[in-house]
Structure formats: C-alpha cells, structure tokens
Design brief:
alpha+beta; 6-stranded antiparallel beta sheet; about 30% helix; about 850 residues
Length: about 850
C-alpha cells in the first residue's frame, strides 16, 4: 500500500550565515563588515554603517555587552536577545550570537550573527520534535542511505526487533536482518527510493511452535518507508518507521476486560462466588494461574481489623484457578489456611498495602530461599514472572491475589500491574459488600433462630413435626414463624405466620408478633378475636415505625391460628391473609377447607371469622407459609398439586412427610423463607373425661365432692383427692354464689389433672390476698396456691374457670404444702 508524499517547506538553521545578518566589529567597536542579510533585516546599506560604532545601532545607547538580555554562554562565545533600531526608526528584536576573533597581531574583534527572535524558537521546536520522535516516542525509526546501509537506529526499534545497534549501523538491511522480515523491509526501502512514495505494510509475528496461541501475544506492526531529501531535492536515503499497533489492540482489550469485569464480578452477594468470578476474569486473559487468599475474618464475615505490621497474618485460600487441568498443587487447597514467610511478597503486600511485582523469577529471587516448598513447585512449572496485588476496600486490606506466568511468554509489566490492580479493586468492593451482607444475614438468622421455638412443648392433643428453611443469602432472612401452644382443657393452639419483607427488621418483627400471639393465647381467646387483637398490634407497630426516623418498614404479615380440642375432636381456625391449611385424610383426597379469608395483618377495619372443622381419626393437618407453594417456579397451582402428593398416605411418620414436602416442593436454594407445621390430632378417650351438671344450691357442693372422689378412685389418683376436692369445692362454691346457672364440672385426666367449672356468667373472678380479719374471699387464693396453673376462658355460653395440677407419682403422696397448711373454708362442712 502506498501514499503520495507532500512537499515540505524546509526551515533553514536560523544562524546560517548565508541568509542571517552577519556583522563584523573591530577591536575599537566599529562596524567593519556588513552582510546583505544585515541590510535586508535592518535596512542599512553597507556604506551607511561601515566605520560607525556598533552601539549606534542600539536603541538604548548602552554598550553592546549590557544591551544583550538573557545572555548565556554558547561554545566560545555567548548569545542572547538584543533590541536594535531599524533604518526606518522602529525597534527590531533580534536573537544574537557573538563570537570573539583574533588576528595575527593578537588584536581581538567580534563576529555577530543575528536573526528575528521567532526563527530560533521555531528551529528549536523542530529539533525538539526530532529528538522526541527518536528518543521518546513509541515509534521505531531507522534511516538507511541510498545503498540501504543503516545510518541511524533509535532504541525503540532495537527493543522491537531485538537486534543491537552495533549489528545494524553501517550494515545493509540484508546483512542486519534475516528471513521474511528482511526481504519485506529491503523491498519496501528500494521501492521508496525509486518512486518517492510512502509505502505502508503490516507485519504479523506468528507464535513459536508449541506456544499457546493468544490474541494478546500477537505482534502486529505498521511499517512505513519514505524517501529523505535535502533542501535542494538531493536524495539522502530512506526513513523506515515501525509502530506496534498490537499495543493499541491490547489497550482496547484491557479496557474491554475491565468492562467485562464490572458486569461479571459481584453478580451475587455470595462471597465464595465473588472470589471465583475474579479468578475467572484473570485466567487466562492476564495470567496462567491466580490464587486469592483472604483474611479469616473476611471469610467468617466478622468485623475487619487492620493487618498487624511485621507479624504473621491468618489467611485462608478462597479460590485458585489455572489454565492447566492437571496442574500439580502449587499452593494449598481452597478453604485451607495459608502461611507465607515474612519476606514473601504476600506478607509484604499485606503489610504495606502495595503490589509486589517480580518480572523475573529465578534462582536469584531472594524471597524464594525462605520458602523451599514453593520454590520447588514454581521451578517445576517453569514460572518466570510473579505478581501479588492487595484486595483493598474502604481503606482496609482484606487479602491478596497472587498471579503466575509460565506459558505466557512476557513478564508482568506496569500495564499488567495497573490492570490487575483495577480488577482487584473492583472485586474487593464486591467482596466487602458480600462480607457485610453475610454478616448481617448471619446476625438476622441468629436472631430469628433465637426467636423461633427450639422444640415443641409436651402435650397430648397432637403429634407434631415442623421444618424451617431460611432463604438463601441473596434474599435475606425472612419473618416466617410457627408455634405450638398448650391451652387449657387439654387443647392446643397451632400457629404459622409470615412477616412481610426480609432482613433483620423482619426477624425482629416476627419475634414481637410471636410473643404477642403467645400472650394472647394465654388469655384463651378464640381464633378470630386473637387475630383481631394481633391486627391492632401490627397497626400500632406501623404507626411507631412511621413516627420514628429511619424506622423499620417491615410491618405487616399474614397468620393462621387454629385451636384443636381433643375431647370434641374439632378444629377452630381463623386466618389473616394466609393460605388455608391442608387436611390429609386416610381414605379421601387432600382437603383445603373453606375458611373465611381475613385481611392481612396491618390493614385494620375488617373483621376476622372462624370456621369449625370436624377432624377425622388418622388425619394430618399441614400449616405452611406461602413460600412453600410458591417455590415451584412461582406457580401456585403447581405448588398445591405437589403439596397434595406430598401429604398423601398420612399414616406415615410425620418426619417422613416433612422430608417429602421439602423434596417435592422446594429447590436447593429457596428464594423465600419457608416454615410449615404438620400435626396429627389425637382424641382424648372418654374414659379420661368426667363431667356433671351442678345444681345452683349450696348443698350440691358436698355431692360434687363425693363424685369427684369416686372418679379419682376410678383413675387411681387417690393421692390427688385432697387438693382436687379443695379446688372443686372452691370453684363450685364461687359459681353457685356469684355466677348464673347452668353450672357444670368437668375433670380431665391428661398429662395433668384438670378441673373446669363452667357457668353462664361473664363476670371475671378476681384473685386477692384476704386480710386476717376477713370472713371470706380466700377461695381463689387457695386454688392458686395448690394448683400448678389456673385461669379463665370465655365461651359464647359464658365462662370456664380451670385449674391444673400435676399427676401425683407413686413416690409422692403428701399433699401440696400450701394445701396442708390452709384452713378449711366454712362451706366445705356442708
């Protein structure tokens, strides 16, 4: 390829005496020589100025030496700037050079050469450009004469071709170069000499046989040859320039690699994956091997502390990657601790926070002497270049990345180091974000686990099993919870709830709601009323959050609350925006009972309704959060279908059913928290329940005590007769005196012995401590002393006062100490 050259206006040397102003000055300071250049520059003819004092040309009337400004030595003379007067009277600024002369008699005279001030400045600029092209530019330059002998070669070309200057200057192109390159350069030089055109060709270096082919290793050069001529047009030779355009390609590739890293590193908040992404960017584009070692505090997601200077720091291998699949182990395996000597590049990099580069690694590398194991392995691979960069974010060093080259022919240079430092800086920010997220996730998870039940309470109403699976680290901890709460009358409450959102605020809100449900459950509220009060609580929490700057936004959720009565075998359920429970029957399809769908918690203003369900023997009831049924590709219908399959054959062990639900409905890493509770209701035998209607007359107390005593004898609970008769007497007496009929008594033998007295009054009993002078008021006080627990629950028909006491063991026959010391009330004598 050739381009037509253009004419260039040569700039002559400004002090060239053939056209500059030349003035001779004798020993007396008189002008004795005056050139045509001086006449053209200042306007004076020779006859007008010869014999005149040279100072007559000066504008200030001073002597010649003091008139020169910015004087400086130049060889045997000196030079500077001077102002002289033109024949026409105006001022002329000149650049002046003065050289002393001596004749045979030893008399001194002066030769002054002057030109316009702008001329030497242009000349000096041209000279600076010429020297810059030869010594500072990345362009390789060679000049050959008309016989194609090298006359000038700059250092850049010497580095490009690897041919020393002494093997080129004075030799022809054919003598200095060999092979295809020589023939191309020689042909191009001859063509430029003959045609006068500028010729352009591309040269591409092919990798050596057996060397891995990589685009960034290819050498693509643009070679130009053009003819050199002097001012008269005489041909002097040919100038050949070489530009390594592959450097521009590599710069573009490195920029593309940085852009790629910005999209590939930090795609998740998983720390291990982030480190792996960094390794995959570096190998094989930059290095043959990379190892990333992080502080143990980073991998453990703990608080970062500054690296101890001069001491050994605990590092752990986070990831490594090599171009060789059969690579012998260069360092420790991923996950193992790494120990580096204090003089190693890794330790120095950690202590200083600066990259350490060894362009050449060989037997003379000092730090390898302290690490013979690594030296042997590096020698085995043939590693010739080594680079260690720190992983820093927010002013803290979190680890180091070690890069090796053995098949990559070039050593690590400044550009490689800058590139790797940029990649490491981007990765370090992502690693720090992942560490902080993991730390918050672990904190929220620990908080959530501390707020969830660590085991199910002892009760006989249901056999239960549960699973709680937190979301993966990306989604964050959620607010799912479950609970099994024993209630009075051998009943049990089954609860599953879900708080909106994820994170530590969701976990904290979940804990507050679970505590509130337990508190409300102790009041023996029916499910619909309990959800109503829970809804009021959520609204108050939301108001508090709105009133607090930076308050938690995770206020709201769903809940299902059910009460199972093992005596009536009925399940009373209410739900607040929550999925309906599933009931698996032995001989019928899985049922999703039609329970009124109340609003989610936190909306307010809408009522909740309960539904009562008869539970058949052998059934299994499953309560769950929406994460269970939505995990199947977010298709709820598929989720319900899989749930039915998982609950089939409810006669299996509950743990097996739970495992089946996890396997069929959940992916390996669920995107949302999942909590579910599986319960197999049990019926309480009619032999364990005794009930009587009580006439509203005082004399009925004695009869009820006798019937109670006979029932305890039938149950072999004679040891509990004293305290049970006391409880029955006090509760029945209070009902007769202060309540309204109908009145009934029920005894339940379960894990405890339960006494229940029901009436149609809604008046709440009040426990107080009577004074020594009081004639009554000791009934509930005595019941509270001898009972393990007691309380009141309200029903649509009135209220029930209940008291529980532990079943006596064969080894303990003594009555409760409080009961033995308590006086017998008056009405017990009836």
């Amino acid at each position: 390829m050739a381009t037509q050259g253009t004419a260039y206006e040569y700039l002559a040397e400004p002090f060239d005496i053939t056209h500059a102003a030349v003035v001779g000055i004798d020993a007396h300071g008189l002008v004795e020589r005056w050139s045509k250049g001086a006449q053209a520059l200042l306007g004076y003819r020779a006859r007008e100025i010869l014999g005149q004092p040279a100072t007559s040309l000066l504008t200030g009337g001073a002597d010649l030496a003091s008139a020169v400004s910015e004087p400086r030595r130049g060889g045997n003379g000196w030079e500077g700037l001077i102002a002289v007067r033109h024949r026409a009277g105006h001022r002329v600024e000149l650049a002046l050079r003065i050289c002393p002369l001596q004749d045979g008699g030893g008399r001194r005279s002066w030769l002054a050469v002057g030109c316009e001030v702008s001329a030497p400045r242009k000349w000096e600029l041209d000279q600076a450009v010429l020297h810059g092209l030869l010594d500072q530019s990345p362009i390789g330059i060679a000049v050959v004469d008309t016989e194609l002998r090298y006359q000038l070669v700059n250092r850049v070309l010497e580095h490009m071709d690897g041919v020393p200057l002494q093997l080129r200057v004075g030799r022809t192109v054919g003598q200095a170069m060999a092979g295809e390159v020589e023939s191309t350069l020689e042909w191009q030089a001859r063509q430029a000499l003959g045609s006068g055109q500028t010729l352009l060709t591309f040269q591409r270096d092919v990798p050596e046989p057996g060397e891995p082919h990589r685009q960034d290793r290819e050498r693509v050069r643009l070679c130009a040859s053009f003819r050199l001529q002097d001012r008269t047009g005489r041909v002097l030779g040919v100038c050949q320039t070489t530009v390594d355009v592959a450097d521009h390609d590599r710069a573009r590739q490195r920029l593309a690699l940085v852009n790629e890293a910005s999209s590939r590193i930090g795609t998740t908040l998983d720390l291990d994956r982030t480190v792996r992404e960094l390794a995959e960017i570096v190998v094989p584009q930059v290095a043959d091997f990379v190892a990333v070692d992080l502080l143990e505090t980073v991998l453990a997601a703990r608080e970062l502390t500054p690296v101890a200077v001069g001491g050994e720091t605990a590092l752990r291998r986070a990831a490594h990657l090599s171009i060789q699949e059969d690579l012998p182990e260069v360092v420790v395996s991923a996950g193992d601790p790494t120990r580096y000597p204090l003089a190693s590049p890794q330790s120095r990099c950690l202590n200083t926070g600066h990259s350490i580069r060894d362009p050449v690694v060989d037997e003379s590398t000092s730090w390898l002497a302290q690490d013979p194991l690594r030296r042997a392995k590096l020698n085995l691979l043939g590693v010739h270049s080594h680079l260690v960069v720190p992983l820093q974010a927010r002013g803290m060093t979190m680890g180091v990345a070690t890069l090796l080259r053995w098949k990559y022919p070039e050593p690590f240079d400044d550009d490689d180091q800058l590139l790797v430092e940029e990649l490491a800086a981007r990765a370090a920010v992502c690693i720090e974000n992942a560490r902080r997220f993991t730390r918050e996730h672990n904190t929220a998870l620990a908080l959530q686990h501390s707020l969830l039940p660590h085991g199910l309470p002892e009760q006989s109403a249901v056999e239960a099993a549960y699973r709680y699976l937190p979301a993966d680290t990306e989604a964050g901890v959620g607010g799912d919870w479950f609970d099994v709460i024993p209630l009075s009358g051998a009943r049990v409450a089954l609860v599953v709830g879900d708080v909106v959102g994820h994170g530590i605020h969701a976990a904290a809100t979940m804990g507050r709601l679970r505590t509130a449900v337990q508190t409300l459950a102790d009041l023996d509220l029916p499910p619909d009323e309990l959800l109503g009060r829970l809804d009021d609580l959520v609204i108050r929490l939301a108001d508090e959050a709105d009133a607090t700057a930076g308050g938690a936004l995770v206020i709201g959720g769903t809940c299902v609350y059910a009460i199972y009565d093992p005596i009536s075998r009925k399940l009373t359920v209410a739900r607040a925006g929550h999925p309906s429970p599933a009931i698996a029957h032995l001989r019928e399809p899985v049922e999703f009972p039609d329970i009124p769908a109340g609003p989610p918690l936190g909306l307010g203003g809408l009522p909740f309704e309960s539904a009562e369900i008869d539970v058949k023997e052998g059934s299994v009831i499953a309560f769950y959060t929406d994460g269970l049924i939505e995990a199947s590709d977010r298709d709820v219908d598929v989720g319900f279908e899989r749930l039915c399959f998982a609950l089939a054959h409810p006669d299996r062990p509950l743990d097996e059913i739970c495992n089946t639900m996890v396997r069929m409905l959940l992916p390996e890493h669920p995107h949302d928290d999942v909590a579910f509770l599986v319960a197999r209701p049990r019926a309480l035998s009619t032999d364990d329940v005794a009930s009587w209607d009580v006439p509203a007359v005082p004399s009925a107390v004695h009869t009820i005590r006798q019937m109670t005593n006979r029932q305890l004898t039938a149950w072999n609970l004679e040891d509990a007769a004293f305290t049970t008769e006391l409880i029955v007497s006090e509760l029945v007496t209070n009902a007769i005196r202060h309540a309204s009929p109908p009145i009934s008594l029920r005894l339940i033998r379960e894990r405890t012995l339960i006494c229940e007295v029901s009436d149609s009054s809604n008046t709440s009993p009040h426990l107080r401590r009577p004074l020594s002078t009081d004639e009554g008021g000791r009934g509930l006080f005595l019941v509270a002393q001898v009972a393990q627990r007691w309380g009141t629950r309200y029903t649509p028909q009135g209220k029930t006062i209940w008291a529980e006491q532990p079943l006596p063991s064969k080894q303990a026959h003594a009555p409760h100490p409080a009961a033995a010391a308590a006086p017998v009330p008056e009405h017990d004598s009836t």
